Amino acid sequence: MLKKDIIELCLLHMLSSEDLYGYEILRRLHESFPDTQESAIYALLRRLCKEGYTEQYEGKKSDGPTRKYYRITKSGYEKKDNLLNEWHRLRDTLSALGVQ
């Protein structure tokens, strides 16, 4: 499981509890993955939408620009579960090998 997959798992996990707008997703992911480029996260969001794992919609207008929100889809929940199972297998394999 590569870093990209871990970030994807984290992103889908965040969206499984609430809809979020792009900048909020970016801010939260940067707290744990500070070396990840903003463009890479937005590219991941676009790909997840294109593949049907998330949906994008416009939020209510505020004083600033309209925010684009993201929500997870049914297939997104399935993708999240698959990535989580893959993570558990990798963690268990590393642990069995004594990698801590």
Automatic annotation (TrEMBL):
Origin: domain of life: Bacteria
InterPro entries the UniProt entry points to: Metal_resp_DNA-bind_regulator, Tscrpt_reg_PadR_N, WH-like_DNA-bd_sf, WH_DNA-bd_sf
Source organism of this protein record: Candidatus Butyricicoccus avistercoris
Protein name per Swiss-Prot or TrEMBL: PadR family transcriptional regulator
Residues annotated as domain Transcription regulator PadR N-terminal: 11-78
Entry-linked Pfam families: PadR
